[in-house]
Give the backbone structure.
Amino acid sequence: MNIFLTIDLPMLAEKLILIVLVVSVSLVVAMYTTFAERKVAAILQDRSGPNRAGPFGLLQPLADGIKLFFKEEIIPTFSSKFLFILGPALAMITALMTSAIIPWGDKVHFFGRDISLQIADINIGILYVFGVLSMGVYGIMIGGWASNNKYSLLGALRAASQIISYELAMGISLIALLMVTGTLSLKEMVLQQQHGHWNFIYQPLGFLIFLICAFAECNRTPFDLPEAENELIGGYHTEYSSMKLGFYLFAEYINMFISSAVMATLFFGGYDMPFVNEANFAPNIAALIGIAALMIKVVFFLFLFMWVRWTIPRFRYDQLMHLGWRILIPLALFNMLLTGGVILYLHK
Amino acid sequence: MELLTNRGKMVSREPMNFWEKLYLPAILKGMAITFSHIFKKKPTINYPEKQRPFSPVFRGLHILNRDEEGRENCTACGLCALSCPAEAITMESAEAQPAEAHLYREEKYAAKYEINMLRCIFCGLCEEACPKDAIYLSETFAPADYQRKQFIYNKEELLIPHPKENPEAYKKALGNRVKREVVKH
């Protein structure tokens, strides 16, 4: 019984509430990202998107979710039912896990305690994101393998190799960023970027490489060959129906949301609102301004994802691999060497 | 190779220059074009709040006509049923009793007149075949329904409103129709 007295119950409660809040916000934002995708696609194509379900079509994602629940669950007969169900579950879990270390805002002051709006402020911050990202490959591979369908397997192979290839360039461009910031922790990086000097101006090439790799990691156009409908029917999610398919599609949108948040935090100042000195406000108001600033940046990045999707055609598989290995990795290495050289020169 | 017309354009097969190989300038140009589409006018018409106007000869729902005094024109001659390529019209005739003479133009009238809207192809051949100007196709289309049974329209639903009892409804149902000459006996 004594062991329960040693647990810091208020902190546990605070973390639990924060986790529930962050996960539900991620889910709701991902839901409305699907709606925004359809609306943005329509606006860019001279038509109006869904506007019938609820006022201005705002209840459309709810309708989509309910539709997916009502569809028939088809599980093909083959060896491993466990793996079939595990695939989408893994994709969803890894997508949600990465939201744990993003600093959503500054401190909030409730009940006499200072609560920081980051679930886990670990000092290996961005490395955790990379670890979870690598695990995300499992979700797709298991889904493709357990479908008992050679085309799904091909699609899953392509997806996995694409993710692995672009992870490398992402990591190398991140090393250049780490040389500038000197710390892996995301909170430290945001604090360094206060008052106007965002990392984007120190690392423009690094940001470009990171952006391209983020597109590839989320399986978004122009890198969306794994789920290209006309090439591989559905790729790794051909055999899935109902909510398991919903999980795969949803996990992609959550990945998009988290990638946008990570990019905003790393390169664009996170929850820093430019031209506003947060110290002038009460802590809760400052935190709210910070959250609003981060959300605006995330929305801009999401719009960028969709804008690019409806502009350019997708890469062929060999062009994709060529870009990842033979163009982006040398470019990232060059960026790293350049950054190292400039830092050395400036410190002399 | 000889070109048959003078509209052929030679495809340029030069290798890409540096800016083209970068892809990024071309992508940014494309993104600017897509962005400009946000501000263009959308040609979508939000049905059912707004409707596209139809021409006066639009072939929509059938209407059984009456003359100016309100007597039904249709004499159940069967020419419309005969000419219908989809066999959508069926009818049964009856003889008008002297007490009902004000309702019908001639002695023979259609006691039962049914059009199966699911079979009808809205070709307008019935309108062309009718010798009494009794049936014509108006400007509305058949509304949706949940059961197949509801799509078999009988005479009451097809008849135009009475011009003496219901003049506004009659005028509205008449619409912009171009009338043909009626053969007088």
About this structure: The mean pLDDT of chain A is 86. Chain A has 13 helices and two strands. Chain A touches chain B at residues 43-48, 51, 307-308, 310-312 (CB under 8 Å). The beta strands of chain A are 107-110, 113-116.
